[in-house]
Amino acid sequence: MTGRWRRLVREPLVHFFAAGALLFVLYTAVGGPEQASSGEVVVDQARVEALRAGFERLRSRPPNHEELQALVDAWVEEEILVREARALGLQQGDTLIRRRLAQKMAWITQGTDVERPTEDELRAWWADHPTDYTAPATVSLRQVAYGGETLPPSAAAVVGSTAVPPAATVEGLPAVLQDADSAGLVATFGEDFATRLDGLPTGTWQGPIRSPFGVHLVLVTERAAPEVVPFAQARPHVLRDLSDARTAAAGEAAMARLRERYEVRVTSDAYARTVAEGTP
Q1: What is the DSSP pairing of strand 262-266 with strand 39-43?
Q2: What is the model's pTM?
Q3: pLDDT at residue 92 above 70?
Q4: Per-residue pLDDT tens over the stretch 215-246
Q5: Which of 181, 208, 225 finishes a domain?
Q6: Strand ranges inside the chain, DSSP E
Q7: Are residues 109 and 186 in the same domain?
């Protein structure tokens, strides 16, 4: 066994997935869905009110009809996963709450049918989602900060030229930025400064450009338009995104199969009225 494989088999994450695979094999061996629990899931008035109250504590407002439906659906799915997990005995020796059991069951059912994408599938995903793999527009610039509300006369005199401006009076700011994107400009100089740069010509000092630090002279030296990242460079991100999408789809499909085995009854009159009326 090579050193690489020795390191791999010692990885805790490998042990986790191996354990998950073993649980799934056991799940299948004992009969899978036929052996798991089934029956009726009842969402009564007390449960609906508890879900509503929990939402209101977090958001400081009652849920609307769509949010209440989503809360009930999430609780139903959690209840189904808990029952399935208990049917497999996953609760034995586990002192964590029902959500932990639901997570265990979700881990088992979610990714069992997910195949590793082929190169053609990765390229197709990359081509179909260009905005996800586009490098943002960037700008390179020099800036001189003076503070206050207006440029000093000696600084105003160089606007529109390439002359050397007077020294800055505000210290601690970067004098040169190379390939800065909008997010970086906003983080450093604020949104108004970043927005004003869009209309500036290149090659000459411009101003006054305002920021929380005062006024600036700015010399834009170069701009780069947004550009789709080449596939070879984007490939690790494409692999992650496509794998995540497939895992999520597998989880939704597995949850849908489990839900088919349960009859869900919501016995809360208030819930029925809320959904029917579309009001909180």
Answers
A1: parallel
A2: 0.56
A3: no
A4: 999 999 999 999 999 999 999 999 999 999 99
A5: 225
A6: 39-43, 134-135, 138-145, 176-181, 205-211, 214-224, 227-228, 262-266
A7: no
Rounded Cα distance, 200 and 242, in Å: 39
- At 106 the pLDDT is 73
Domain membership of residue 239 (yes or no) is yes
Tell the burial category of 99 from Cβ atoms under 10 Å away from its Cβ (0-12, 13-18, 19+).
exposed
Residue type at position 26: L
Tell me how many domains the chain contains.
2
**25 lies in the same domain as 91:** yes
Round the CA-based radius of gyration of the chain to a whole number and report it: 29
Specify if 9 maps to a domain: no
Above 90 in pLDDT, residue 182?
A: yes
Q: What are phi and psi of 126, to 5 degrees?
A: -60, -45
Q: In this model, does residue 10 exceed pLDDT 60? A: no
Distance CA 44, CA 25 (A): 36
Same domain, 114 and 244: yes
Interacting residues of 71 by C-beta distance below 8 A, sequence separation 6+: 51, 52, 55, 63
137 Cα distance to chain centroid: 22
Identify whether residues 115 and 253 lie together within a single domain: yes
Considering 225, 246, 263, which residue would you say is the last residue of a domain? 225
Is residue 2 a part of any domain in this protein? no
248: tokens are 């999520």
Specify whether 173 is located in the same domain as 41. no
Q: Are 123 and 232 in contact (CB under 8 A)?
A: no
Residue 211 contacts residue 154 (beta carbons within 8 Å): no
- Give per-residue pLDDT as tens, 44-90: 999 999 999 889 888 888 999 999 999 999 999 989 988 888 787 77
- What residues make up the domain containing 256? 16-119+233-277
Residue 132 lies in a domain: no
pLDDT confidence bin for 112, thresholds 50/70/90: low
